């Protein structure tokens, strides 16, 4: 995970009566193993948080995306960009949080994708053992406490016309006002497209089935479970709850599907609105003959799987990893 730019600004706030004060960093952070480990741990913690998903509001552009675009174009530096952002966050901290913290902003690369991650970090009291084997108090970063945190897929924002949300921000329970103010500061607009989110869920399920290398019957049963539950929720006018769906899909490992979604960062909220039309079109094609068993999701037809009716051939463009390895060994 190459870190391109990173910086930490301190925002001091002693108590609810004292206005927040910004102590800006003079320079960006030097690369280090500790910094990479910290960013990795924060990304993992962020995956598990409740989030809103959306895009920058193009109808009412805010200052931050304009300033970020200028930085990416080389017209400004990272320290100035993030210091201005920290200044805008101070009123939010004054109005919604009892204390300040350290604002970490990281511009980093993950594979071919570039991300901007930001989080207001807080400390907690802990313990350590010193060289004399004595217990001593220690201040530690609390990676799970991120009242203000956001993640932007820069690559999607800059280079794609997709309607998929590319920006997310933390949504702590009981802090709706803070989340809304944070989104306004970033210039973000929440986007909830039922069709798109349902398609993303089905894509996540297809990936999960392939990763687990499920047998045909097990795959069909889990598909029926997903569709039945989602259809029932649509009839009731209720959202699909991912942790509940995960329990239904695998009672022996109730967190497995939920963890797959969280760790792969599909951009799904814990609750998503079901789309009946998308669900009705979702099915699995299966067939068995002469020692050959084939099973795949209907939405793959015409994409990674093609059927040539004239020659009665099925063409698989993306061979599953496990099968490919077996073929190579053969």
UniProtKB/TrEMBL annotation:
One of its GO terms (molecular function) is double-stranded DNA binding. It comes from the Bacteria. GO terms for cellular component: bacterial nucleoid. Its main location: cytoplasm. Pfam families: NA37. Keywords: Cytoplasm. It is found in: Cytoplasm, Nucleoid. InterPro entries: Nucleoid_associated_NdpA (IPR007358). Belongs to the YejK family. This is Nucleoid-associated protein YejK. It comes from Cobetia crustatorum. The lineage of its organism: Bacteria, Pseudomonadati, Pseudomonadota, Gammaproteobacteria, Oceanospirillales.
